[in-house]
Batch of 2 targets.
Target 1
Amino acid sequence: MKVTYGWLKEFVDIKMPPKELADKLTMAGLEVVSLEEAGEPACRTGRDFVLEIEITSNRPDWLSISGVAREISAITGAKLKTAQRPKIKTTSLKSVEISVVDKNDCPFYSAMIIRDIKVAPSPEWLKKRLESLGCRSVNNIVDITNYILFESGQPLHAFDLDKLSQQGICVRRARPNEKITTIDGQQKILNNEIMVIADRDRPVAIAGVMGGKETEVTDSTSGILLESAVFNPIVVRKGRQKLGLQSESSYRFERGVDSENAKNATFSAMKLIAELALGKPCAYKSVGSIKPNKSAISLEMRYITRVLGINIPLPKVKQILSRLGFIVKTRGKNILLVNLPSFRQDIKTQIDLVEEVARIYGYDKIPLSLPAVKPHKITSGSREIVSGIKAILRSLGLQEAITYSLVDRNLLVKSGINKDAQPVEILNPLSKEQEVLRFSLLPSLIRALAYNLDQQQEYVNIFEVANIFTAKSASAEEELSLGIALCGAKSFFMKQGLVKDEVTILHLKGILEKLFNKLGIKAYDFIPRPDNQINIIIGQQETGFMLGLNEQVLNSFDIKNKQVILAELNINKLLEYVNLDKKFTGIPKYPAITRDISFVINETVSVKDLLALITASGAPLLSLAKVVDYYQGKQIPPGFRGLTISCIYRASDRTLTEEEIAPLHNSICSLLEERFGIKLR
Amino acid sequence: MDINLVQAQVENDLAATSSISELESVRVKYLGRKGVLAELTGLIGTLAPEERGVFGKQVNAVKSKLLDLINEKEKTLKTKGDSVNRSTLDIGLPGIAQEPGNSHPIIQVIDEICGIFNRMGFSIVEGPEIETEYNNFTGLNIPLDHPSRDAFDTFYLKNYSKLLLRSHTSPVQVRAMKTHKPPLAIVVPGRVYRPDAVDASHLFMFHQIEGFLVDENISFADLKGTLGFFVKSVFGEDIKMRFRPHFFPFTEPSAEVDISCIICKGKGCSVCGRKGWLEILGSGMIHPNVFRQVGYPAGKYTGFAFGMGVERIAMLKYGINDIRLFFENDLRFLKQF
């Protein structure tokens, strides 16, 4: 909201320059977001300044020059110049027909009929005032209603009396499909949720929001009906949201106007109309009562100290509240009884008064102290382990990414991941990119990966830990997930020079094995599925999967000549098997004997089965069997694989001899020949 | 192989050897089980009996000569040191190591901030991103049909009535207080969502950190002290801080916290809009209505709460000028942190 320095000065003695005033207002909760000299630089006469203030939604009483002036008086101690209220005898005036259908929609409505007016352009001073606040001058009548709105905060509306079908009005809800053309020229179709001002035949204004074109004041207007009312904030808000309208009036009604002010505003306007447009009041009527103030709030000094952590003397508290317009009485040594003025509907309990005191006393005068924090057991449990998981992945060279949880539905479809899952849909997305919540991290990671390939990255290795969401009939489910995406060739130096290592699914398997080992997860397995996906099983439970993207999906992401390897794991399932309890195993006292078996084997035989057989038949002397080399290509017939497996034999109580293990080792070799048809090399 | 050439060849090989492991291959090549000397020894059986003696002696002589040569080479290699062999290695060549990954900069800032509060005794708690209308609004004293809700524009879920994507991390206050009695000292990091048009400083998804402390006598002075410690920990001892009255439905009194602009040191620049101050936090004393909503006895507890946008702090801290960079995941960006 904009106010001018000059206009404020009419209401309060300001003895400080605009900049200092702006700072003081900001530090009292009326944040001044800009301070500029008023008017076009060329036509500046007397210097004035425009302050733009961000008014918080709880303070409708600040939405006026007089409200801000009152605040300045409280902050600076300067005297408030209360303007003399114009007095007009209404008893001698005729009545106006007003019917208010629902008092809850409109607790107060007043109408004054003014005749013999001369509509003309406003005088320069009035034009300038309005223009400095960014309000266009229309004619003297409309300008006067706006002037009163800015000065007092009460929106007024003037109807052209001769264009109303009767000399009275009705405040009611719109009937279905009733229409109105508002003063901005838009036709609006109304319904029962929208409150209107109507004459006998039709709506003539959307109550509290905007007047109708047909009854607006024009140059030929000679009589007006001047409305000043209090409308239900919620009804105004809902109505204007429905119609997509917003105005200075609705802005104030939504936040709540001061009912006492609503009554006075008519008379202030009348006074100006008489001066500037020669009008005479002919009839006046108000219906509804002005809400009586709530009972007084008692404010204990002890409470102020408890909440703020500082002692503010009672006289100071009393002074602050009085300057803000509260009526304050002392009740005993440490208690104040505070009566609320009609414009402070935001004050409900003691705590609201504490804020008022603190605000004006100055937040900066409250000291700094450090609270004694008592330790307690509440924790989110998994957060630390999840941090650990991330640290392990980073140590394996993976880069952490964060992608949007909201995605375009098409992104999920084209990635082909979890085809059967149903995404959770968003009711009110602003764009297609916010259509659904993703049920997998991988589509977003593929997109991030493709983006990086586009930026000439040779190697992309990223992971993300975030929630994924699935639509289930009972609820929308949310689960923590880990996604990994790898692509391209990693270049690194070895002693021989630069080496390039193209990622394969075995790289991903290696990462996961290292992760599981570090987390103490032992019971895991990788089980291929017919569709080329590899299930990750932990403790009999399917916990995630790995896959390489097929050509079709790669094409849809514009990835050329590269393999993309992905994995996604359910973190909660993983956490069930995490075991970070460590137990020491004695370091072997006796040396081991290592014997390698090099052989050729049909490539369809799984190395996992081979190792299982060796391990089972080598017990107890065989302590470990592991693959130390594999090879396909020259020297190996097609369809076969060359393998070298190291068998490590060890006894815990003695040094083994060659002779002791030879029969065992030979029997393992023959068993492999027999069961798997290996050919020793 | 001609036995007379063996020695010359070994000498050649040894000259080209610069490390113990290479020396080992030379040893195996000549003296191993299938090595050159084993081969020569094997030839003995194929010779006429009268030639065997002479050849055998020759083989033995070569063998002991080789052993000498190899041992001597080993000695020189060991004293010279493998790693700083100047004749073959240039220390100007690139070092060899596996490249470790980084945390995302947003996660780094979250971890740093949560770590500071953790050291002050706050626990770190997380909450769900799909929330109820109650936890996101009503429980926090935000009326559903009031302009104060405009600041919390929210994504609602289709097909699930009254469920939404949390528009702030404050619902975790309601969750924690409903299930736990004070004293409570908690920080809550997490993703939040608002239907905002995307530009260099706005996104529909971002991160917040919420914090709150509830006990029998927590005051605004405690809030100032706690946030003062936090701000100095993140931005340095010289930073200035001010508390500016503001309005939040769930706190009373409420304050926005500004720090002196870290770019211009308070003189006024484009980053701070020439104000000299940067707004970084919202805070205040928890509204008694919130305590009432969670079922705490009236008047028993006081507490403070605060919330901050992580992206904003990260942007200030790292000098990043476009919020979208955080979620593009360009490796050239991510690897800088």
Target 2
Amino acid sequence: MSTQVLFGQLLVGLINGSFYALLALGFAIIFGLLGIINVAQGTFYMIGAFGGWMLLNYAGIGYWPALILAPLIAGVIGMALEKTLISRMYKLDHIYGLLLTYGLMMFIMGAFIWFYATAPRPYPVPPELGGGYNLGFMFLPKYRAWVVVVSVVFCFATWFVIEKTSVGRNLRAATENPMLTRAFGINVPALLTFGFGVGVALAGLAGVLAGPIKNVTPLMGGELVIVVFAIVVVGGMQSILGAIITGLSLGVLEGLTKVFYARGSDMVIFVVMVIVLLVKPAGLFGKEK
Amino acid sequence: MADALSLSIKDLQAFYGDSHVLHGVSLDVAAGEVVTIIGRNGAGKTTTLRAVMGMLERRTGSITLGGKEVIGAAPERIARLGVAYVPEERGIYATLDVTENLMLPRKVNDRGMSLERIYKLFPNLYERRGSQGTRLSGGEQQMLAIARVLRTGASLFLLDEPTEGLAPVIVQQIGAAIELMKQEGHTILLVEQNFRFATRIADRHYVMERGRIIDQIPRAEIAARESQIQQYLGI
Amino acid sequence: MTQQVMIDTRPAPSRAADRTLYLLGLAALLAAPFFVYPLFLAKVLCYCLFACAFNLLLGSVGLLSFGHAAFFGGAAYVTGHALKEWGLPFEFAAILGTAAATFLGFVFGYVSIRRQGLYFAMITLALAQMIYFLAFQLPFTHAEDGLTAIPRGKVLGLFDLNNLYVLYYTAAAVFLIGYVLIMRITHSTFGQILKAIRENQPRMISLGYRVNNYKLVAFVLSAGLAGLAGATKTMVVQLASTVDVHWATSGDVILMALLGGVGTLFGPVVGGVIVEMLQFYLADSGLPIQMVIGAIFVVCILVFRRGIVGEIQRLLGR
């Protein structure tokens, strides 16, 4: 088996892993802060991709501004949903939050299907990122390298903000003890809204990055979120770094499996989840309760 | 101090879910006074403090801060009016280091204690400033809990059992800090089981039992009513 | 779930009013095929049983399984294969399908029960997704085509299931068996223990109950009954496909229980009828079914958490 195939699949795995990491990171932030399982995380990925497509086709706005605007749009939509609907779930059993986001996912997906049908729409690779590098052992497309770099940078940036800044400090405090944090004069409800916005904006970023690689369709993200579930179960949801590392590693693992045992590649992440559940139920980076 | 806050509670009823825990509590703390609430475990002392801080779901009655009605206000609003809370469990965050714990509470004004002064008062906190908050000893955590609210410039302090479970030498340090706060003219409402400690600093004591205020003891009468006080505390 | 969900724990027909209701229901069940197309009714009954089986887990134990389609669809495939490739009579094919679902339920339950609440729901969804992928890869499932033109054969060796009335009454019998079983389980001591676990698990643990074992048994029962529903459905519609193991099917059954009333016995039946009718009428309308389902979900969660039967019970002061 040639090195081209091996490294080609490794790259695909790394790219998928980057998307997994961004989605899992956003998902973990939302769960930590709000206690809500955001089933619609994949939907915001789709909104990001569609956002990029719409900006280009309706407003003539190209890739580079879209890279900022699409995640922002996703974030704003998310914050509006949190403020109006999702925040009503905090006083209820946690399961209702999950079911609400499931319902929102279905509704939004259905709405997009109604307007845009399911046929995939192309989104062009920006010309500055076209072509690639011949590294000898593989051909590295520029755009794909770009996707991995941007994802890793944003993951690291998010981690940095959360761990090293005062905003992040407030977020961590609100995650650990929301009521007491309010007693220190911090507007926790607003922080929750903001946190949700950040969590889904990360998904939106993954979406707009995915546009030139994957098909832009309302069905995007539907199955993806289930993989994200498996990833956060494997990584444990308490660790920001854990979500990032697990996402990247499992993506790479998926890519490798495709090389050696193609039929198992869909399932390998879930198999890992089962193994982790049997051996260390709290997750690789999780703490036992 | 001109900006010290007064607190007035009238007929406060409070509920935890369906459980009726405060049955018409009324008390007053004048600006600059130090007042304690004493009583047995479960009397409702902590609940009263939490009600003032806005941390209880259901409460009715009247709570005024410096004349302003705040019975329905959210905790963050009450904090910004100048109220600071040091909970019984200390509330040190495990996911923040000591410095972050210290800097977390939002400043109300610029009249709070400077970091320099705080570190002088509590040198341990400077030494351990990079440690995870919960790695500190009980006494150090208590000092951190007090230090962080001193920084905010708050003028009404709600302290819940600040000396509980601490060694005498630490209790002395805490006492000195509270004495300092009193000298600066701040208003303090203190819940304390350690009556010796309470008598040294407070001007007045309210006695609480089963969600009601049942007695009030001014400083002057403490010696005379010692046996009655011991009865109240169940000693 | 402790404040929002009420469980119907009155003992089986002890009051005259209940007895009348049950008799009316039975009469309706028997008379229905003369008013409504029997094939459609039979299909609906299968999904009602599916919803009731799901609700056994959620209403009694408070466990939200987001992957119940794995049991429904898994049994559908096994039964379909048994009917089509092995020519087994319906009873045996159904038993086989149910057994497969029960076994799958044990495996899934064993892995998932370790985590609580939301983790449990996510894990069940992920596990079911594995089954979905398998459905595309295993030879006997025929991937996207699914199992088609499955022969119905005879029931009890005597009655031709291609006769729509025979078909309907067989499905109704299966439904009744399943429903009564669920009813008995819910009202039994076992059911009471499950309810106690849902309301105060730490206390039950301290009392010495092996809580995880009880949950696992409940899970397996729920999975098996869902499988029975899937097996019967396959015979009725003569088709087993990847739709049966898709996450949307898991979502649909949650909606049925939610709409009808989680924690009530009859609620899922009502929910099942409504959702199936919705799917039928919307199929040709051009309106995406996801939008409607999603909207109903959102509305239910926001303002209608008790569900139809739950609200009726509340109005009647029960």
